# Entry
Amino acid sequence: MHEYYVTQQLIKIAEDELKEIKPKKVLSIKVVVGELSGIIDESLKFYFDILTKGTILEGSKLEIVQKKALLFCNSCQSLFERTKDFLCPKCKSLGKLTEHGREFYIESIEVDDGDGN
Ligand SMILES: [Zn+2]
# Structure
């Protein structure tokens, strides 16, 4: 059910953004989702279709850009993509989680403003 509320928030933010532009139609909305955000893409898509009914976003395509989690190694000060054992590929020290991978935000919204371009 987590995604239900998350999707509601997402739609609210998008609607606020679109208030200014007043597009004829919304074509697609691109959302960045980190792998540690706890958000499941399929659920997000599922609720998006349901919750956008009757809104300006109805019929638009939800594009999800996945971001990998990055770990930080204190020993050699490097950022690396999460490994299974959390070990730094360079020096084999234990890395720690960073903010990379917890993303959840709207990157862009593609609209049709009706002038044919
Ligand atoms: Zn290292």
About this structure: The two ends are 39 Å apart (CA to CA). The domain at 2-112 is CATH 3.30.2320.80 (hypothetical protein PF0899 fold). The pocket of zinc ion is lined by residues 73, 75-76, 78, 88, 90-91, 93 (CB under 6 Å). The chain is about 25% helix and 30% strand.
